[in-house]
């Protein structure tokens, strides 16, 4: 027997819960125990003298009826009803039907809305593991399996799950992972493998690109415009359901023409090697990603979507920069408003990782533009430099001078190319008062033409201004853009304790990139390949 301690003056109301064995009749037996009063004597004052318990008419019984609930749709149907006539009846027209995504359970022969799966943890865990299995099967560029899986999870299902705001967390993560594994992973791996390689064709448009020119500076970083480097292009093909290697799954007889089999297998493998990822509406997906990111920033929602690489144009880049830091990049920003960017709101660590990845990707685009500008300048400058060398060499050949002096003048052209470039690039600014020996004057004198020297100096000055080095630190618009990233990382580091080690590594890597613009260009010089296009 259990004992309970009650407060003084507490009133108890005894109750009994039971499940009836019959639906037609319910019998109450208020019996009595020896040496005790009946239950009715304690409950009903009018019956306390009765030795035979009975049910008075005032007794009421509460019955709990079982109720089955179902999810109400978030959007109701907008219908239009019209009575045609008394004979023909009514006409109901639905302008915009509401779509749902149902899950069918064959064991119970029932189906329910996928939004209700959060109430069914067993089914939720099963479907999450199934989506994980699909992702593993389609990994490492297994495009044949990706096409087959599109027959199980088509584009409509993926887009519905991605756009749904009320889907449970595990299912949302599973569908996003499946979308990346089937449709985007191959292209993302190709882009990532060539993100640090620079194969630049020497075209006419490249000569006109110069991100170091102060006249081209705007409030945005130098990441706008097309890049001329050779990068993988996102391609896809319609979903396939039949493949040529199905015949290989059949048993072969002992005697067979192995040459024909080899030719068949090689032909089938060649076709599979040319297989492209399954197609999806990338424009609609990109529009949803941009809208979701803007909505998450405006409402400070702690969920951030990855961007679709290779499909973002200048308009989306400007929108992303305005969402990151509207004070610096939004021309319509008004001080004192509540409009804040991603660098000014509190974010979870997972969102911070995605934001650092986005800014790091923007730095990669900026680095690619800088390298392409250097290659474009170098092509024009080296061509003019060679013409100047040829002109000076012909002047020396056509001038009558002693052999010793001619040998001294032509020493430049008899040196290896590396020493020639070192001598040509060793041009200094002329000082008004010089007190040097003849040998020093000869060593310091640069044979390059004055216009080429001035062109090279201007290029170097513009590069230093772009990287905010030396005397160009003050009064530079780039400092505002660099300080935006530095201040954001400083606030994160001085704020709450960071538990994610990956976030710490990415933060330090991004911080280092803000101070190592020259080092990056020098480091990636061995990976630059310029090719000449012949028509």
TrEMBL record:
Sorted alphabetically, which InterPro entries does this protein's record hold?
Ryanodine_IP3_receptor, RYDR_Jsol
A Gene Ontology molecular function term for this protein is: ryanodine-sensitive calcium-release channel activity
Where is the Ryanodine receptor junctional solenoid domain positioned along the sequence?
A: 127-271, 310-434
A Pfam match is RYDR_Jsol
Provide a GO CC annotation, any one. Answer: calcium channel complex
The source's domain of life comes to Eukaryota
**UniProt record, GO biological process:** release of sequestered calcium ion into cytosol by sarcoplasmic reticulum; striated muscle contraction
What's this protein's name? Answer: Ryanodine receptor junctional solenoid domain-containing protein
Please give the organism: Strongylus vulgaris
């Amino acid at each position: 027997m259990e004992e309970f301690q009650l407060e003084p003056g507490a009133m108890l109301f005894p109750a009994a819960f039971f499940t009836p064995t019959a639906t037609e009749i319910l019998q109450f037996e208020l019996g009595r125990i020896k040496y005790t009063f009946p239950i009715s004597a304690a409950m009903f004052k009018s019956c306390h003298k009765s030795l035979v318990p009975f049910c008075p008419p005032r007794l009421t019984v509460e019955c709990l009826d079982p109720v089955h609930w179902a999810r109400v749709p978030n959007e109701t149907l907008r219908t239009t009803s019209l009575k045609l006539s008394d004979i023909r009846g009514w006409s109901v027209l639905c302008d915009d039907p509401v779509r749902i995504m149902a899950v069918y359970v064959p064991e119970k022969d029932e189906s329910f809305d996928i939004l209700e799966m959060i109430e069914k943890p067993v089914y939720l865990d099963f479907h999450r593991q199934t989506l994980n299995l699909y992702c593993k099967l389609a990994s490492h560029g297994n495009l044949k399996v990706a096409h087959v899986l599109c027959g199980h999870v088509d584009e409509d299902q993926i887009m519905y799950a991605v756009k749904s705001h009320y889907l449970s967390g595990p299912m949302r993560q599973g569908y996003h992972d499946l979308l990346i594994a089937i449709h985007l992973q191959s292209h993302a791996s190709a882009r990532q493998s060539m993100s640090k390689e620079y194969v630049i064709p020497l075209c006419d448009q490249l000569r006109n690109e110069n991100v170091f020119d102060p006249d081209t500076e705007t409030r945005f970083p130098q990441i706008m415009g097309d890049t001329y480097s050779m990068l993988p292009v996102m391609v896809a093909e319609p979903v396939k359901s039949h493949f040529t290697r199905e015949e290989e799954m059949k048993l072969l007889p002992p005697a067979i023409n192995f040459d024909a089999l080899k030719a068949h297998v090689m032909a089938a493998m060649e076709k599979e090697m040319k297989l492209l990822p399954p197609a999806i509406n990338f424009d609609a997906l990109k529009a949803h990603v941009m809208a979701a990111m803007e909505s998450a920033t405006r409402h400070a929602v702690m969920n951030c979507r990855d961007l679709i690489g290779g499909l973002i144009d200048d308009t989306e880049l400007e929108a992303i920069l305005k969402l990151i830091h509207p004070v610096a990049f939004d021309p319509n920003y008004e001080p004192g408003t509540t409009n804040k960017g991603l660098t000014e709101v509190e974010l979870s660590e997972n969102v911070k990782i995605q934001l650092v990845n986005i800014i790091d990707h923007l730095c990669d685009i900026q680095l690619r533009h800088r390298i392409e500008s250097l290659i474009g300048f170098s092509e024009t400058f080296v061509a003019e430099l060679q013409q100047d060398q040829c002109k000076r060499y012909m002047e020396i050949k056509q001038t009558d001078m002693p052999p010793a002096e001619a040998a001294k003048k032509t020493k430049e052209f008899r040196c290896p190319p590396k020493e020639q470039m070192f001598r040509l690039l060793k041009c200094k600014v002329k000082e008004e008062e010089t007190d040097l020996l003849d040998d020093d004057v000869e060593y310091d004198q640069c044979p390059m033409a004055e216009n080429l020297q001035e062109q090279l100096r201007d290029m170097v000055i513009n590069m230093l201004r772009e990287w905010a080095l030396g005397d160009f630190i003050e009064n530079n618009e780039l400092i505002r853009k660099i300080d935006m990233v530095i201040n954001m990382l400083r606030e994160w580091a001085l704020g709450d304790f960071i538990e994610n080690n990956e976030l710490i590594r990415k933060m330090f890597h991004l911080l280092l990139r803000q101070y190592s613009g020259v080092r990056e260009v020098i480091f990636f010089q061995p990976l630059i390949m310029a090719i000449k296009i012949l028509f």
